[in-house]
Design goal:
The protein is of the alpha+beta class and 140 residues long. Helices cover 47% and strands 21% of the residues. The strands form 2 sheets. It has a 4-stranded antiparallel β-sheet with strand order 2-3-5-4. Strand 2 and strand 3 form a beta hairpin. Helix 1 runs antiparallel to helix 2. 9% of the residues are buried.
Length: 140
């Protein structure tokens, strides 16, 4: 659109150039004024069209809300969920070994949710279920 405005201005200047070299007459001055006003009106209209195109382009931006659809890697298997009794009460955790067996890369889970838990076989790694859910993971 800016090219259209520039082209219109150049065309107007070229159209007025022969008139500038001719002797000025009363009738010619009115014609020149009419041409200048017409070019200014065309420039204003072209500018308004350009602004409307920009506004329409901005209104097409779509913001997607992904609260209802979860990415596949953000869903954790519920069969790994266990309830442990701790000194602060019962806590739900997901066992790291079970997650790995079910194809979840535990290295990609948030470190802040990782816990060391005691099992029958000694100490193991688990992830706090509530912490993972706060981080955007679903347990299904």
């Amino acid at each position: 659109m800016k090219k259209l405005i520039a082209t219109t201005m150049i065309a107007g200047a070229l159209a007025l150039n022969p008139m500038a070299s001719a002797p000025a007459q009363a009738g010619d001055a009115k014609d020149v004024l009419g041409v200048i006003v017409g070019l200014a009106a065309l420039a204003a209209i072209a500018n308004e069209i350009d602004n409307n195109r920009d506004n329409r382009a901005r209104s097409r931006v779509v913001i997607r809300n992904n609260n209802h659809t979860r990415h596949r890697s953000r869903v954790l298997p519920s069969q790994c969920l266990r309830t442990l009794e701790t000194d602060r009460g019962f806590r739900n955790v997901l066992r790291a070994r079970c997650l790995e067996r079910n194809g979840v890369r535990t290295a990609r889970l948030p470190d802040r949710c990782e816990r060391t838990v005691q099992t029958r076989r000694g100490f193991g790694t688990a992830f706090a279920a509530r912490c993972l859910q706060r981080q955007g993971f679903a347990i299904r």
